[in-house]
Structure prediction request, 419 residues.
Amino acid sequence: MIGRIAPRLVDLPWTGVELGEALGPFDRWFDVETLITRLSDAVRDAPDSVEAAVELLEGIGYPGLPFIPTPPPRIRPYRFGVPEIATPADLATSLDVTVPELDWFADLGGWLRRAAPPLRHYRAVEVPKKAGGKAGGRSDLGNIRILEVPKPRMREMQRRVLHRIVDHVEPHSAAHGFRAGRSAVTFARPHEQQDVVVRVDLADFFATVTAPRVRVVFEACGYPSKVAALLAGICTTAMPVDEATRLTTRRAAVMRTPHLPQGAPTSPALANLVARGLDRRVAGLARARGLTYTRYADDLALSGPSSTDVGTLLWALEHIALDEGFEVNAAKTHVRRSHTRQTLAGLVVNSSAAVPRDRYDDLRALLHNAARTGAAAQNRDELPDFRAHVYGLIAWVGESSPARRARLQGMAASVDWDA
Prediction:
């Protein structure tokens, strides 16, 4: 264990928040807060080598007992401009529920894992994945993606937590997914005209962000442990036992552990914050090797010169991801050089990031035929709102090319959408 912890302390900003982010994944084995206190009391600055970090850990008595005794609770300062919430009663008031209701929604005791469906806070929805969906890693449910959709009252509570607390905290600058003013285009553009583009996928991105890791985020905001635990409980869920029986053993073990539900409004932003440590370390790796790094949800992209040692890079990425509590989906790792099509988030980046020409041409053909025959004849999938679907495709194409958007919108204006 000491061999895994020591490297995380080197050249680190010596603050409680940074130490909490670095040591958060280890809170299942020992009391992280006590270790942070001992480290901060022992030295004023981070050790400058792994050897010095090992010596520091041994000097403060780690490793010692399997579990370091929990000290008296410390008062944390509130940070990031979040509202002050000192007690569970204060949290219940801010969410417009009673304290017993708050306990029921947070479900820290796991009571709802065996409750009848009407009492549960989520409903599971199976959505077919696109062709070429994830394989390997922990994603072994075939071509089905499981969305855990919160019921109305839970969703409303999560929205309040998102807007009043989580939105105040900035993720790492490399994160482009689920952020205002950022998109797949801003994710892809830094990798334009590069000799080598590497894309790495994280398996089960939301499901691997567990409740203890979410609690660390709220504690870093300054919330007392009890309040942070309740906030984490509101934002995470564990799949009920009867629903998990249809999954493989490996998949069921992941989903039965309290995790961020894919489908909750808070999950994307919290996942970004939990991944700050991953982003910080991968960004540092990229700088050291003269590469560019961005992340869009579970997609990590790195690019650089043709001399890039891709094998060593992938090895380092896999180990950083595991150390940060994530897992690389090796089956979806792609390395593309400049003589092949380099694609990130559906955009070709060989020159300027844009939707592939064939996809643009297909949409032009659809609009041309719809103008001749009427929209209904082109709605071969019988979509309930075909017009909205087509305009969504136009927006997607136009995000990277205003000129294409203008041409497509002009064609769409001549379509009789009621015919």
